[in-house]
Amino acid sequence: MKKHVPVTVAGIAALACVGWLAARHAEHVMLEKSINSFRQTLGPDASLTYKKAWPGLLGRSVKFTALVFRQGQESITADDAEISKVSTTGDDARRIGHLIFHKFQMTDTSGNLRMDDLALDGVTLPTNGDDKHGTPPQGLEIKHVDASKLHGFISSLQSDISATRLTVDDYGNDEASHLDARDVRLATNVAPQRQISAKSVLVDGVDLAGLYNNLTYNMPYTPRNGVRDIQVDGLAIDGTGPLMHVAKVSSHATHSEASEQEVSSVQGLELWPSVPNLSLLPTLGYDHFRGSLVLNLTHDYKAEKLHIDTFSLDAPDMGRLTLDGDFSEANTLALLSAGAADMQVMSMNLSYKDHGLVPKVLANSARARGVTPQEFTTSLQTDLVPQGSDPNAPVPQFLNYLAHPGSGPLTITLRPQQPVPLMAIAASLSMLPSAPQIAQQLGLTVHAP
Q1: pLDDT tens track for 14-66
Q2: What are the backbone dihedrals phi and psi of residue 139, each rounded to the nearest 5 degrees, phi first?
Q3: Using alpha carbons only, how large is the chain's radius of gyration in Å?
Q4: 3-class secondary-structure state, position 134
Q5: Contacts of 385 (CB under 8 A, 6+ apart)
Q6: 356 Cβ partners below 8 Å, 6+ apart?
Q7: CA pseudo-torsion sign 210, 121, 74, 151
Q8: Res. 84: pLDDT tops 90
Q9: Are 261 and 275 in contact (CB under 8 A)?
C-alpha cells in the first residue's frame, strides 16, 4: 500500500501541473481575445501597442508596460497601465470599469499633459457617430478622475499649467461636474507674462466637458441649467511684481433658460499700482489697495436686462462704495472689467462713504496747483457754480460733499430717459457746469449731507 503513495502524489502533482499550464494557456488566450476586442472598440484609426501584457488578479484586469495609444493627432503613453472590467459586446464595448496609469502623458494639437499617477473610473469612450444611420457622435464620459502631480501646456492660451492633486467627478457632455484642484499654477508665455496660482480651486455644477471644448476647439459653450458653485482660496496674479492677491473668492449661481441669480464675494482683496488705473495709489500715500467685494445680481435673459441688487466695494482705509440698478445685458466679467464702460444704464443708485480717500485726493490735486486743499475746493466752487445757482443741483451738492466728506455718504441716482452707456454718462458729467440741462436728461440727482 505504501509503495503506491509516491505514485499517487506524483500523479496528483502531474495533474496539478497540467491543470496550471492549461489554466495559464486559457488565461493568455482570454487575454489576447480581450486585447483584440478592446482594439476593435477603439476604431480603425486607432493603434494600441505595448512592451508587455499580462493578466491581473483573477484575470479581472490587463496590465501593460510601455503602453502607447495613438488616434489621429492624439497620443497617450504610460510607463505602466492597468485596465479593469473591459466590456467587449454591444453598446457596453465602449465602457471601461477602471483605468490606472503611472507616468502618463497625453499630446494633441491642443497641447500636452503629464501626470505621475492617473486613475479613472466608469470611462465611456467617445465615438465619431454614423451619419448614414443618424447616430450622433458621443463625447468622452468619466465618472471619477484622481490625478497627482499634473503638468501641462495649453496651446490656445500659450500657458503652462500644473497642480499637485486633481479630482473630477461626472465629466461628460452637459454633466454637472465637480472639480477639486490643489496648488494650481498657470503661467502665460506671451507678453505681458503672468503667473496665476491658487492654493485650492473647487467647482461644482459646471459642464467641464463643454468648457474644455470651448477653450480647446472654440466650440459654443452654454451654461447648463441648475446650481453652480465656485470657490478659490489663496488666489494670486503676479507679473514682474505682485498684481492681485485674494484670500477667498466664492460664487453661487442658479441658472435657468429665463434667468440666472448670482451671489459672489471677494475677501482679502489686494491690488498693486501696476494694475491699470491704479498707478496713482503711491501718490495718494497708499502702497496698494486693500479691501473686499460683494456682488448680488440677476440676469433676466428674456428682458435682456442685468439687475444688480448689491455691488459693494469696501476698503477700510479708503471708503465704501455701494451700487444697485438695472443695466443692459452684460456678463459678470464685463461688470468687473473695462467692459463695464460699455454697459447701458437704465437706472442706477450709488452711495459712497469716505474712510480717508477724499482728503488724500484733494490734497494731491491742491499740491499739484500749489494751493491748500481748502483753497482748492473754494476755487472749484467759484469756477463751477455761478451766482444764484440752485444749491440742490448736482454740481453744488457734489462740491459741498468735497468740502465735508466726513459728514456722511454721498448719494447719486441716475434715471436716464433712455439707456445710456456708462462711459457716455461719465463724459456727460464733466459737461454739467456749462450744460446743467444734462442733469435732467440723465435723471441725475446728487445729495450730500
Answers
A1: 333 333 333 343 445 456 766 776 676 676 778 889 999 988 766 678 899 99
A2: -85, 170
A3: 33
A4: coil
A5: 395, 396, 399, 433
A6: 317, 318, 319
A7: positive
A8: no
A9: no
